[in-house]
Design brief:
Oligomer: heterodimer
Radius of gyration of chain B: 21 Å
Distance between the termini of chain A: 31 Å
Strand content of chain B: 15-25%
Number of helices of chain B: 12
CATH class of the largest domain in chain B: Alpha Beta
CATH topology of the largest domain in chain B: Rossmann fold
Helix content of chain A: 25-40%
Largest interface: A-B, 41 and 44 residues
CATH class of the largest domain in chain A: Alpha Beta
CATH superfamily of the largest domain in chain B: P-loop containing nucleotide triphosphate hydrolases
CATH superfamily of the largest domain in chain A: P-loop containing nucleotide triphosphate hydrolases
Radius of gyration of chain A: 21 Å
Chain lengths: 315, 354
């Protein structure tokens, strides 16, 4: 992995006012970097703040505090209209629900062209049509689909339209917020294969948000696990699976059902109890090259002493 | 084990403006007492419609059952009137729906929603029903049930709501429980809890469960037997070991191959190309032929019958015919079948089907 950071997130917080006195700390101080060309997986249960993180990064929400740097420039800083437009072009998003994220009153062509027109990328009508056809082909649809409306497509096909729309403006970085959760297994594989192919071809960087750990493991180079607004563990995907340190990561991994009946008969689930460790004093620390963990000072020291990482670190 | 429910040659069709959709095209299966039968398949394969037919919930007048029988307790459910069906629904056969957010009434306290069935079917008094409802909430693991009775669905989390839905389904000690993707909308950790709960309840109450899902991991976890559905038909049926360790139908191979395993990030996932056929005009021959790389000439002409692989295992693919070439499953699927040596694998033999 190269060291060229495309995105740097530092101590990002996103708090929502819920009622007069209550504040929901959806994202509560997360920090991570994403390197150019990699796929960064962000996993966690619903309500852990993973989608909010993605949406804050792309500036759908204004961050409460913290910093998001994209190509070295602060996303949330003051921006001229022109800069903002440029930023919007470089960073795109694919949404979870292929039924809700496409305007039902626009044809596929209009949907895909919207970005191109806003950014004034192509002038001639013929060239626009050609580009739409090209994009449809790239995502595995055919050009006859251009004149149809979203309701005429299946979930998998709609998700392909969403991908084509994101690709239309030649972005560098795509945030995919649970792009496959609403799809059937066989179609999930189609979409994941497509995303991988496109990444190779266009040198894309992905932030892949999901709760399905097996798919995340498959597609991601590095994975961050979120719990209650914080990242509790971050590591290379192999390392995270082979050597999960945080008890929450362990419980998540132990809960995935695998398609192997013999394994399932003997599966034992670890249950996570947030009370088992001192969350207030926990800080995000690098316990091993590239392996970050939210832990207390004592736990950190224990890991340093015992570099082999025994089977059950008791933090 | 004795059969409790028998589905024979079931057909369900829906009349639409643009034509008749043949959602279920001759499904045959048996549910035995105390077992869990998983039905897997893509959306549109007819698995949900099959369970709706079992519940007598096929929307009339558009949907109807032109052919087939559903035998339960000596009765053919397809022949019953609405009134008669009401007596069975929720009492002998009940259902857990996919989305706990929409299957509860948002304007009714959950206690009342559980008591409804008890008062109607079991003829309990209000006080008895309340007592039983509290017991049920306790059974499904909701803390502080007496107080929770007086709360509305929006005061529960997704996982807790699904527990309430399960409590309602179990209220009258049903003999058959139909679970239509009961955990698809839930997080993995909550999913694991709900699956454990369902298994525990099954052990205690000897319920027979039909479990619909497209997640093969969940299937491996809960099922005793598995039926794979495609385009309105069951294309392969067998014990959970038959299906996972000795799958015979190319569609089953495709389903298994599209699941990532823990150590395959370098290889491409084996996606099934294309989409399921349009059931308004089902294709001639084997409905899977168009997406099947092993399709032969005969697949385009004639529908394959169910071939017997073993006493528990049947599959509808011409590949099992004596004259068919020996075809090995793709490497990716073999990898998933590996590690588990299953004794003798008998070759498919043709059996007669009605």
């Amino acid at each position: 992995m190269n060291n060229d950071k495309i995105l740097e997130v530092k101590n990002l917080k996103q708090h929502f006012q819920a009622g007069r006195k209550r504040i929901v700390k959806a994202v509560d101080g997360v920090s991570f970097d994403i390197y150019r060309g990699e796929t960064f997986g962000l996993v966690g249960e619903s309500g852990c703040g993973k989608s909010t993180t993605g949406r804050t990064i792309i500036r759908l929400y204004n961050a409460t505090s913290g910093e998001v740097k994209f190509n070295g420039i602060d996303v949330h800083g003051r921006k001229s209209k022109k800069d903002l437009k440029q930023f919007n072009r470089q960073m795109q998003m694919i949404f979870q629900d292929p039924y809700a994220s496409l305007n039902p009153r626009m044809t596929v062509k209009e949907i895909i062209l919207e970005g191109i027109e806003i950014h004034g990328l192509i002038e001639h009508e013929a060239a626009k049509t050609k580009r739409v056809e090209e994009l449809l082909e790239t995502v595995g649809l055919n050009k006859e689909h251009a004149t149809r409306y979203p309701h005429e497509f299946s979930g998998g096909q709609r998700q392909r339209i969403g991908i084509a729309r994101a690709l239309a403006v030649d972005p560098e970085f795509i945030i995919a917020d649970e792009p496959i959760s609403a799809l059937d297994v066989s179609i999930q594989a189609q979409v994941v294969n497509l995303m991988k192919e496109l990444q190779e071809k266009h040198g894309l960087t992905y932030l892949f948000i999901a709760h399905d750990l097996s798919m995340v493991k498959y597609i991601s180079d590095r994975i961050a696990v979120m719990y209650a607004g914080k990242i509790v563990e971050l590591a290379d995907s192999d390392e995270l699976y082979k050597n999960p340190l945080h008890p929450y990561t362990r419980s998540l991994l132990s809960a995935i059902p695998l398609p192997d009946p013999d394994f399932e008969r003997t599966r034992e689930r670890t249950i996570y109890d947030p009370a088992q460790h001192d969350a207030d004093n926990a800080k995000f620390r690098e316990v091993k090259q590239g392996h970050w963990l939210l832990c207390t000072e004592e736990a950190y020291k224990a890991y340093q002493v015992n570099q082999s990482f025994g089977p059950t670190p008791s933090d | 084990m004795e059969p409790i429910l028998e589905v024979r040659h079931l057909h369900v069709v829906f009349d639409t403006y643009s034509g008749t959709v043949q959602a279920v095209r001759g499904a045959n299966f048996t549910l035995k007492k105390g077992e869990t039968l998983a039905i897997v398949g893509e959306s549109g394969s007819g698995k949900s419609v099959t369970t709706k037919a079992l519940m007598g919930l096929v929307a009339k007048p558009a949907g109807h059952i032109p052919e087939g029988e559903i035998l339960f307790d000596g009765k053919d459910l397809t022949k019953l009137s609405d009134k008669e069906m009401q007596k069975i629904r929720g009492k002998d056969i009940s259902m857990i729906f996919q989305d706990p957010m929409t299957s509860l009434n948002p304007t009714m306290k959950i206690g009342k929603q559980i008591m409804e069935g008890l008062i109607l079917h079991q003829k309990l008094s209000k006080i008895e029903a309340k007592k039983r409802a509290i017991e049920l909430l306790e059974l499904v693991g909701i803390p502080d049930p007496a107080n929770r009775m007086n709360q509305y669905p929006h005061q529960f989390s997704g996982g807790m709501r699904q527990r309430v839905v399960i409590a309602i389904a179990l209220a009258c000690n049903p003999k058959v429980l139909l679970a239509d993707e009961p955990t698809t909308a839930l997080d993995v950790t909550i999913q694991a809890q709900i699956l454990e709960l369902m298994k525990e309840i099954q052990r205690k109450m000897e319920t027979s469960i039909i479990f619909i899902t497209h997640d093969l991991g969940v299937v491996a976890n809960v099922a005793d037997r598995v039926a794979v559905m495609y385009a309105g038909k069951i294309v392969e049926i067998g014990t959970v070991d038959d299906i996972f360790y000795n799958p015979k139908h190319p569609y089953t191979w495709g389903l298994l191959g599209s699941m990532p395993t823990v150590d395959n990030e370098d290889e491409k996932l084996m996606a099934i190309p294309g989409t399921p056929p349009d059931l308004m005009n089902p294709p001639k021959g084997d409905a899977f032929a168009a997406r099947n790389e092993y399709a032969m000439q005969i697949d385009l002409e004639e529908e394959p019958p169910m071939f017997k692989v073993s006493d528990t295992h049947y599959a509808a693919t011409w590949l099992l015919h004596d004259d068919a070439p020996d075809v090995e499953p793709p490497e990716a699927v073999k990898k998933r079948m590996k590690g588990i040596a299953k004794g003798s694998i008998s070759a498919g033999r043709r059996i007669d089907v009605e």
